[in-house]
Amino acid sequence: RYTLDFFIPREVIEKTKETMEALQKRNAAIQPSLAIIQVNWIYPVKNLKNKTISLCVGINMDFAIVKEVLKLNEDPGVHGLYLHLPPASTTSRVLTALKPEKDVEGISDLSTGCLIRGDLSTGYVPPVISAVLELLNHFSDVSLEGKTVLVLGGHGTLEVTLRCLIERNGMVAITSHWTSKNLKSEVMEADAIVILEAGNMDLPPNWVKPGAVVFSCDPTHNTGTVLLRVCSSLSIIHSIWLLFLLQSPVLLFIQKNVVHSCTRWLQERQYQPWNLSSINLQPQTPVPSDIEISRAQTPKPVDQLAKEIGLLPEELEVYGRSKAKVRLSLLDRLQNQPDGKYVLVAGITPTPLGEGKSTVTIGLVQALSAHLKLNSFACLRQPSQGPTFGVKGGAAGGGYAQVIPMEEFNLHLTGDIHAITAANNLVAAAIDARILHESTQSDKALYNRLVPSVNGVRRFSPIQISRLRRLGMDKTDPASLTPQEINAFVRLDLDPSRITWHRVVDTNDRFLRKITVGQASTEKGQSREVWFDIAVASEIMAILALADGLEDMKTRLARMVVGTSRGGQPVTAEDLGVSGALAVLMKDAIKPTLMQTLEGTPVFVHAGPFANIAHGNSSVLADKLALKLVGQDGFVVTEAGFGADIGMEKFFNIKCRASGLQPNVVVLVATVRALKMHGGGPNVRLQTTELLEFSGCRSNLRKQIQIARLFGVPVVVAVNVFKTDTQAELDLVCQIAKECGASDAVPCHHWAQGGRGCIELAHAVNAAATRSNNFQFLYNLQLPLVDKIRAIAQQVYGADDIELSPDAKAKIDYYNQQGHGSLPICMAKTHLSLSHMPEKKGAPTGFILPIRDVRASVGAGFIYPLVGTMSTMPGLPTRPCFYDIDLDPVTEEISGLF
Known about the structure:
Blueprint: H1 10-26, E1 33-38, E2 49-54, H2 61-73, E3 80-84, H3 92-97, H4 109-117, H5 127-138, E4 148-152, H6 156-168, E5 172-176, H7 183-189, E6 192-195, E7 213-216, H8 224-233, E8 241-243, H9 248-268, H10 290-296, H11 302-308, E9 316-319, E10 323-326, H12 329-333, E11 341-347, H13 357-371, E12 376-380, H14 385-389, E13 397-398, E14 401-404, H15 406-410, H16 416-440, H17 443-450, E15 453-454, E16 457-458, H18 462-470, H19 483-490, E17 494-499, E18 503-505, E19 515-517, E20 528-530, E21 532-534, H20 539-546, H21 550-558, E22 561-565, E23 570-572, H22 579-586, E24 593-597, E25 602-605, H23 620-630, E26 635-639, H24 644-659, E27 665-670, H25 672-678, H26 688-710, E28 715-720, H27 727-739, E29 744-748, H28 750-753, H29 759-768, H30 785-797, E30 801-804, H31 806-817, E31 848-851, E32 853-857, E33 862-866, E34 886-887, E35 894-895
Parallel strand pairs: 1-2, 1-3, 4-5, 4-6, 6-7, 7-8, 11-26, 11-27, 12-25, 12-26, 18-21, 27-28, 28-29, 30-31
Antiparallel strand pairs: 9-10, 10-24, 13-14, 14-24, 15-16, 17-22, 19-20, 22-23, 24-25, 32-33, 34-35
Helix pairs in contact: 1-9, 5-9, 13-29, 16-22, 17-19, 21-22, 24-26, 25-26, 26-27
């Protein structure tokens, strides 16, 4: 007699055990898990966490199985799926739905195809076949190579796969059926017989040659008497008939596959080296329009790009073919991965048209990745619809250094700005509704409506309990509040004249700068003057850019101050009861959007806070995700709005404080045309060099380099080349930049040549990133607000001192009383001059910086002093960009964006 244990392959057991121990050593919490979808009964698999899903047989059985399979496919806690179903239920739809990496049976079409081709990297060998091959080896005294194996009674993928794997192991496989005329001779010639389906058929014992091994894989085959006949009629002990499908060998290989799946799952979640494929760029002369260049280049499918840079399929939410949201779970997966190098692109004081920071950012990453083969990521702001249809036009870069498709980049993208608009205006609606209801209802009526009785039970919502806590009431029973406590709870008592929250729209609509609301008779006289900002000026946009996760964003949204009560207390979004709803509206917007450059290098597009009253930088989360993805030797290049005195200063003092990140290099973008303007131009002919040297380079450029060096970061000057520039001018700017303290200064031809035109800059940045970095903040947060404002005015702008208006002084006192004195400063001033006077070019000195007002974005986490008059709602010019924007109704091609 032979016990079943005799046939268990001990080596497989030990190997599986060792693999499990290694898994749990790397991650103590990991437990390989098998989910079994079944109709009647299941296999008891030891040492695995099993999850059994029983389904009722019916007309919708196929739909129910597919639905369950798709759900388990996305469950990270399930590493293997076993379908214990009747053959009729194992339909093509079910097999197609099954993920190959979880198909531990090896029955899906993809798994079968890979096995037949010889690729074992994705799917799994079916446990039945593994057991057959193992037992063939076990019962063979000599090498199996050249032996003949008869596969009897099978059909379909199991037979094909078994035959292929038998032959791959050096044996000769032949197939036959019970009705074959040559069955006896085929059996007598075989060294091993594998019966896939037997039904009521038996092999006569005298057909099996001495020494042959016979296996039945048919669970319905009654082999008891056959086994006795074979053993009694043969003197050679190796002639054995074994039924094993429901016994330990197959279960062992199920277990092995599940453990292997779990191992693969963990390996995939480790940092993956990039396998980035560049898109060939063929620049033309003269350079076509931006949209023509964009349309001529076909972007890679975004899921292909994601795979190339090490993203997992479950970390991607695809929006069409060329863009996708990236889930924040990536940060948890790569939390132990060292960050790459962090590069900030800033600029000198610009002309009204800008000096090309976005094109330099894109050209630099194209050079680093496509030409120097260094991992690099660009992190850019999402453009507002206002400039797109107003004056500036598209903001996807330009020439041969841009993000594609540029139409999608400039128009809606993945809807983040729309989400911000909806959230912002929900707050505005809640404010006016609350003022109306408080003015027309008694305390009791308000309380009954705010805390309604549902099915005879009155409960506080979680956000209401939070308000009670802030009011000092440790109560959860609505019936326990006193009349005085009810009054404090229901009355926000907002002062209409001190509401600071504005409505927003993502269009340059100058007639919304000041309007009157509440004029309908239904609003019962609650009319008041309000105004609109452009959507990107919303505090919610600033919060999106500074939040480091969903929980942090939710907390920041809750503490946004929307106004002041008549008693002088701040009223927050949480007091209004709206902050949870805001988080719901923003839950997708918090995920950065993945796109690509013209040369196929990755780009994150995320957030675009107004660079005057906010910090004007893309999101902390995009930078953090990119720094993990590029690897320790890679580069993340991000851009700051306006000149170094605004965008860069705020990047360091606000964004870096929020993120905890420190930049390795600053790239300072300069143009000859802007330096001529600072020298007294722009229309300069005879004195070009003189103005460049003395008034342009040695004033504004020198000052902006000094500002960057205030923070202890190496500076590389990138001279954005225009076709009107002469070589002498470019050489002079580079020479003076180095004399003024830049680590290096190079001309950049990315607009006309793409990444190839930025190779010199890429080498300079790579070299500067290896230098010592003594990064420091400009001021200590514990300094008084006035001293922090003065530090920026004197050390960054070059002012002699500041002058506070009475309103500004009063606001500073108020914010100190409210405990906001330790927040950083976000100066709101013109970007056209280092001073507060737009007409003052170069590097003005000897002026007093006037602070006319001071406001707070408590949710975003900064105080913003206003220097002069600051418009937060741009207006349309006489001839806006939209005159040139059109759509071909046949091809759906967009024209005129830029």
